[in-house]
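yo

u said u wanted the structure for the complex thing, so here. seqs first:
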Amino acid sequence: MFGTIFDIVHFAIHDGPGIRQTIFFKGCPLSCWWCHNPESRSSDIKLVDREETMDGFKLSDKETIGMRYSIDGVMTEINKDIVFFEESGGGVTLSGGEPLQQHEFALELLKECRKLEIHTCVDTTGNLSSDILSNIASYTDLFLYDLKHIDDAQHIKYTGVSNKQILNNLKMLDEMKKDVWIRFPLIPGINDDESDFLRLMEFLSKLKNDHPISLLPYHKIGSQKYNRYGIEYKMNGISEPDSDYIFQIKSMFTNAGFATSVGG
Amino acid sequence: MNERITRLREKSQSAIPQISAERALLVTEFYKSDLCQQVSVPMRRALAFDHILNNKSICIVDDELIVGERGPKPKSVPTYPEINLHSLEDLEILHSRPKVWFKSSDEVRKAYKDIVIPFWTGKTNREKIFNNLDRNWIDAYEAGVFTEFQEQRAPGHTVLGPKMFKTGFMELIQQIRIGISNLDFFNDEDAYNKREELKAMEVSANAIINFAYRNAGELELLAQSETDEDRKIELMKMASICRNVPANAPQTFHEALQHYWFIHIGVITEVNPWDSFNPGRLDQHLYPFYCKEIDEGTLTIEGAIELLESFWVKFNNHPAPPKIGVTAKESSTYTDFSLINLGGVKADGSDAVNELTYIILDVIEEMRLLQPSSMVQVSKKSPNRFLKRTARIVKTGFGQPSIFNTDAIIQQLLYQGKSLEDARNGGASGCVETGAFGTESYILTGYFNLVKIFELAMHNGVDPLTGKKVGLSTGDMSKFDSFDQILDAMAKQVKYFVDIKVKGTNIIDRIFAENLPVPFLSLLIDDCISSGTDYNNGGARYNTSYIQGVGLGSLTDILTSIKYNVFDEKNVSFGELLKATISNFKDHIELRNNLVNHTPKYGNDNDYADEQATSIFNIFLDAVDGRPNTKGGHFRINMLPTTSHVYFGSVTGATPDGRLAHKPLSEGISPFQGADRKGPSAVIKSASKIDHLKTGGTLLNQKFTPALLEDEKGLDSLVSLIRAYFRMDGHHIQFNVVTAKQLREAQKHPENHKDLIVRVAGYSDYFNDLGDELQEEIIRRSEHKEY
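structre next:
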């Protein structure tokens, strides 16, 4: 069995508890306007041109976006970092893209990690069938669960898909009493309307268990990639939220009784 | 920081480093005397020491609480012409060089011209050393294969143990007298030598007591004319302290600090030892005084902090003695490597971190001075609070305190044959060097340029930069059919140069033992008194000679590149690769790009590359480890560069890893600048693959962007990273928390960044004081940031 992975990051410190190794799966059913890994949307392995500079000379080269890995191949990388997981209470995070678009490969990795007593975390859009997710859930210690917009029409506009399945899946994980951290990208002018926040909080308050919320303020770090990989960038004119504003939104959630943090 | 300390600190920071001829003139005067000719060598040295301390000027700085200056005033640095004589040209170079300069007045130059130079020419220890070394030693030294620590400075490199914080010099004199009366002139053929050595120790002990009395006298005079009542009382108190210590064992916190400081001044006046001297485990030594006085109500926490900070300023007043030539290149800094140790374990093995440890950490953060250097010893028993408090200081970006693994240090010392208790009382000094405090002489003998040696092997023993045959003929590498043959040739060259170095050190050690004994230092280190033997002659309980390997990361990448590109992937022949390095990659841009960007590198937790690091490490270890020295001890290795990786790079041509000619090598066991691309955890994994426990210290530096440590999660992750490294037996790690952008800005506008401090390699320094090449080297180091 092979998976298509576009990056493996060691010493990831904002993708769950402790020091983590984050495995970025390639391919995503959503196409969020603000995505900072647009090269991860397509599930194909691509060869792109790249220019290198050496001693002032320009050299052309090819860069592969994405790589095929066997389970053993990924586990070799994971095994390298066990000492850091143990010292920090960290582990492995599957992210993407949408890791569960390759759910069979993801499930095998999660099982292998469990054998090795490694803490696992799945960072998901939640946009997949409930059966698959519930199967994955039995081998996952923690979900980082993305909620991008509470309004379905807006969700479709900005991500390309409906949020119905996503919200239902979150309810299911909640019923299963899974540990879930909600991740909410804070995008000025797109998902920060006050009435939408109220609706979101109403939805969350109906869940049976408390789930901490992380606000992920929009940043432009990924914007250059759109150009490099020839993908249309729709976020021109949208600026990064300032710290006062972020604090204001955070307070709103905190005051409503949600444990809220900023950043991963 | 209170107002007094602010004034003292400012005064120290703005003092101008300059040469004082005072000591040179006094030592010359003594050596011209009839007395000098009539006594044994140890007595000569002790009487010279006494002559200097009895006649040098006494300096009491306004406001200060701890007294005693080596020169006539702060940063006024004496010279040691009996060891190394500066010519007028040297004085001019020191005066006018752009970095690490020392001003010298016309008066100093006149004294040198008329008195010091005429007397000492032809008589210095440095000349003796160079006259006694073999031609092949000189050739290797001139080619930049190794450096020599003892050519301009005396051996020292030791640290005070717990004993001297409980002992006064009067008590030592009693021990000496008993020792002399017990000498057996009938059966012990060394009885005379021991008597002379012990007599010399007694003279030296009296000399330091008298020096304290002279300071007391000056303080009493100042008190008489002082109009401020508070300061008058303070001066009287300081005078009475100087009449008690170091003659007697200290009774108070203040006395303990003053006691040590007189000892420190004694050690760095007797000779110019490398490193200067070091109080060692300061939080442990001072803790009993602190507890007693806090309980009795005679000391407040604020009072303790003020005394510690006044003590800190004293270190800062004392730059390293002026260095010239190769010595200046290998250690281009004012820092004199006095490394305060905190934490660790007690002699009984329990956790040693205490309340005073945290107070001293506050002092380190508040003072933000280069001197003294500071470090924390982290054992598996240390609380996380200790490490996290340290991380918060590291985050402020001045590279202190550096972070050490106590459990590894203990195992290193046990491996070398120390007792468990002596090992637990040990720590690290200088940059990262392991030692048993109070019981060991552990001399650094010189840096060892592993990359240059490989360059010589690539050219069959000939130095391509000069055309001179310096190494062995180990064969034409382009004709080798296997990679193992390359490693073999390297092992032979390393063995050859280690032999040369060891022989040289064994000669130099005898020259010091016979001509420059150090009876004062011998008072401080066990078992010199009880054996009646000088520190420089094997009197210490343990005697280690270290050779410091440099360029592990670079050489790993070079060997990996040859294995990968020549033997495994067959991208290029060895002959073509060699040709490209000779041309400094001119017209080989594409090849260089492949070597730099598409070849496995050390520092990425990639076994293919890291395997070569262990190969080289073991070759070096096997050639050195356990060889006897002339003092009853052994040669060992450690891996640190100070600034020698810049000098060694400058004498080494382009290399098969794609490094251009004359550029710096990697430092310590860190990856080559910019070669580590998988984050700090991968670096730590690579660095853990060598056997740290068989060394006397390794040095690993990492550069973090401030953003990575911005929040608590970042700090916690740093703590975990360090714990993980230490669990894998890593010895030391330190961090620069700064961005390349900030450093570039500081290069453009040095006037706006006078306070910018960076970690170099085993010490911190002002960015402005670093040479251009070293500034560039630090900027090129990989910057770990969030992805």
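The radius of gyration of chain A is 19 Å. The mean pLDDT of chain A is 94.
cya
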